[in-house]
NAD-dependent epimerase/dehydratase family protein
Amino acid sequence: MSLHVVIGAGPVGSALATLLAGQEHDVRVVTRSGRGPVHPRIARVSADVAVPGALMPHVAGAVALYNCANPASYQAWARDWPPLAAGMLRAAEDSGAVLVTMGNLYGYGPVSGPITADHPLAATTRKGRLRARLWEQALDAHHAGRLRAVEIRASDYLGPAVTPATGLLAHYAGPVLSGRPTWVLGDPDAPHSWTYVPDAARTLAAAAADERAWGQAWHVPTNRPVPVRAVLEELARIAGRPAPRIRRLPRVAVTALSPVVPVLRELRELLYQFERPFEMDAAATVAALRVEPTPWSEILAATAADWAGRLAPAGHVTA
């Protein structure tokens, strides 16, 4: 079968590599550490994609190059994203591999109503403008005929393997599943779209294989929006834990703590996503790529089983 190269071994990169290997493709997972999922068809490679030319030896002969990378922290985005993206653009251009990027919804900025993939990129935040600019660079190269590019966009992640560092909901769920109060940002009762990691992997694979998808962005098929409070209540119920005790961290507190808590400083500009309804519309993806979202009940069951054991092991659960 064909060779696929996945950059990054976080939840999405690992799920994608495992999916492709299960389809009997040869897969190379490239990270700086050389880590990644274990499978007979997956080769784990250590390389720094940000170093010019470092990626090319590992992409030669590949049909697709998947950008599932992410800098270690929000604070590193401005420094780390441009060279990472440049390295992958050059590798896709030189190798002929389709460049498939895992993106998010930051580039749209605040939107009233459901967000579609053809909505203007009108970000008002530093991180949103950065993500929009990186996609526009890839799209310009696509239109110039230098490479073939497509971007898949997701909302906040949930599912097995998501950690507090890779998903805000997992950060909230750890205390809840341990029987402790949890502090949340924004309005816990505002409807919010959540992306299941395996659905993101399936959408990436589908877009890479369908040339009709190239040259545009697509949203990961996602279930109806559900408020933070409702998701946490359902996860606690399925895991057999007490009803969650949810505390809202006011915006004024976020602002006051931002100078001394770096992650809050970075999250403050994204609070609009949680202070009012935030809904992603992926109907176009379902129609064109034939990818359906996993049923919500299955998502919750798989997520609760993993998070209850990993984020709140039995010995750390309070009565």
